[in-house]
Amino acid sequence: MGKQEPDPKSLDDSNSTHKPDTSTVDVPVATNMAIASIPSSLLPQPSWFTAKRLLAVFCVINLINYVDRGTIASNGVNGNRRTCTKDGTCSSGSGIQGEFNLSNFQDGVISSAFMVGLLVASPIFASFAKRVNPFRLIGVGLTVWTIAIVGCGFSINFWFIATCRMLVGVGEASFISLAAPFIDDNAPVAQKTAWLGIFYMCIPTGVAFGYVYGGLVGNHLSWRWAFWIEALLMLPFAVLGLFMKPLQLKGFSHTGSKKPLTSPLTACPEEGSAYYHTNVYFTLSTWATENSKGAPSYFNELARFWKDLKMLHLEKTYVINVLGYIAYNFVIGAYSYWGPKAGYYIYHMKNADMMFGGITVISGIFGTLAGGFVLDRMTSTISNAFKLLSVATFLGAIFCFAAFCFKSLYAFIPLFAVGELLVFATQGPVNYVCLHSVNPGLRPLAMAMSTVSIHIFGDVPSSPLVGVVQDHINNWRVTALMLTSVLFIAAGIWFIGIFIHSVDRSNEDSENQISDAERARSQPLLKEKSNEPIEVPVESS
To answer: What gap in Å lies between CA 378 and CA 345, rounded to an integer?
Structure first.
């Protein structure tokens, strides 16, 4: 073995005798691994990108997602079932429930149907993020979401709309799994929880606006138009995700691509910037060919997925966090769907959509923002996050429970508003724990499995179960009190998390990243401010 200084042009010649000794340096693998280890803030970014602009775009998308959740639950869109009096006079009902003559159980199924698609697709999108740019995956998901929402407007029966709602979940899965890691990467270090709080503030805000929006559009146009307008609002963002130059996500390198790499390691640094994006490409075609031939098989991908899943569930901090989140979401999911109806029957609210929408939007905005800012002021650590989660949830449960005990609407409104404000303060901290209890390469899977768990064990069964309980006892007040008591369980689980030894793993190397030893053995493709030929180990002829 010897070292020579070949003509750089000869590196592209397939007949060249200067072939690399891959046992000494595997440049493509080292390059991709090194890309994964670089903070996203230092990677070359598209011209449209700024951190605040990214947050704003993701917030609007999240808002539209949850407007749809509120819309499907609003009295204007969901409506009421057909009823008949003792003398045989029947009303036609209104909205989806009235048009398709649905029972309360079927009505609850429609609210939860999108979860089926969400549960199946979330881990798939998280797995694909290791081979396909995550920003592109978000674009694909939003396109599916838009098409499915249009289908909801054209529904002809229960099964048609239930199927479309499942596809809505498939579309939402990519965004739910991948948006939070992008925000965590680009948020200022001292404001990470606050930025997550701003993002998750869109959940209660979107649901609340959905109540109001669904009531207005459903009563003045029709429930079908509510879905079509949502699709028009989401369409520009689907196009953005599909066709705009994508962002990179910390902890990932996409070795499956056959396109030449453009990265900080293949580009010439320029004065005044850490890395400069140029048109210098890695063009060693022999190595590219070897890489493409080594594409992982389906079974290797499946084995890797199960390995990652096992690593995820060995993290006690992550598991405790998700268990508390499941109990929490069991209540919040049922509140969001049955809240307006319960308010209508318990307190005879003539405008239940507007009332619940108003309480939820005000409490949701201030509560979610407050949770993020308070944790940042406490110093964002996993232990402090669990303290905030347990205390806020416990106090919120007390206020919400007390609210439903009062028969007066004027007592109910302030108590329930304070309760919701405290309960929504958990949104930033709970997702902070999800992102920081695992290493960067596992974040999309962590968010995906958190989403799967809180829905499959939380709000997916809660809406139909509350419908079944109400059908049997026919007392909305008792049903609401039984549901609210589950929040005490959530507070207890998060309280346990305070005493578990926790480590912030957000800055650990993922398995995709290059180790110090590997980095030392590898040669830089282009040296800084240098036009010297690259030294590449070659076999002696």
So the answer is: 42
CB within 8 Å of 76: residues ≥ 6 apart: 95, 214, 215, 216, 217, 218, 219, 223, 226, 353
Report yes or no: 161 and 110 within 8 Å, Cβ to Cβ.
yes
Q: Which of 68, 71, 69, 73 is nearest to 338 (CA)?
A: 73
Amino acid at 462: S
Place of tokens 């060693």: 284
**Amino acid (1-letter code) at residue 169:** G
Q: What is the DSSP letter of 274?
A: S
Cα(204)–Cα(70) distance, integer angstroms = 9
CA distance 425 to 416: 14
Sign of the alpha-carbon dihedral angle for 206, 73, 433, 34: negative
Q: Structure tokens of 92?
A: 């036609």
Q: How far apart are CA 385 and CA 131, in angstroms?
A: 32
CA 381: distance to chain centroid? 21
Per residue in 80-119, pLDDT (tens digit) is 666 666 666 666 666 677 777 777 777 777 877 877 888 7
Beta bridge partners of 94: 80
341-380, pLDDT tens digit by residue? 888 888 877 777 677 777 877 888 899 889 888 988 888 8
**SS3 label, residue 282:** coil
Residues forming a β-bridge with 536: 4
* Tokens standing for residue 299: 């079974």
The one-letter code for the residue type at 371 is G
Note whether 393 and 336 are within 8 A (CB): no
Q: Taking a C-beta distance cutoff of 8 angstroms, is the pair 342, 483 a contact?
A: no
* Percent of the chain with pLDDT strictly greater than 90: 17
Task: Please state whether 63 falls in left (phi above 0), alpha (psi between -120 and 50) or beta.
Answer: alpha
Angstrom distance (rounded) from CA 232 to CA 215: 19
The structure's pTM equals 0.68
Residue 294: CB atoms within 10 A of its CB come to: 10
- Cβ count within 10 A of residue 245: 11
CA proximity to 294, closest of 29, 27, 19, 24: 29
Helix, strand, or coil here: 20? Answer: strand
Assign 3-class secondary structure to 506-518. Answer: CCCCCCCCCCHHH
Q: Which two tokens stand for residue 388?
A: 């905030």
For residue 532, count CB atoms less than 10 angstroms from its CB and return exposed for 0-12, middle for 13-18, buried for 19 or more. exposed
Nearest to 305 by CA among 174, 436, 126: 126
45 dihedral zone (left: phi>0; alpha: psi -120 to 50; beta): beta
Collapsing DSSP states into helix, strand and coil, what is residue 2?
strand
**Both ends of the chain: CA-CA distance in Å?**
9
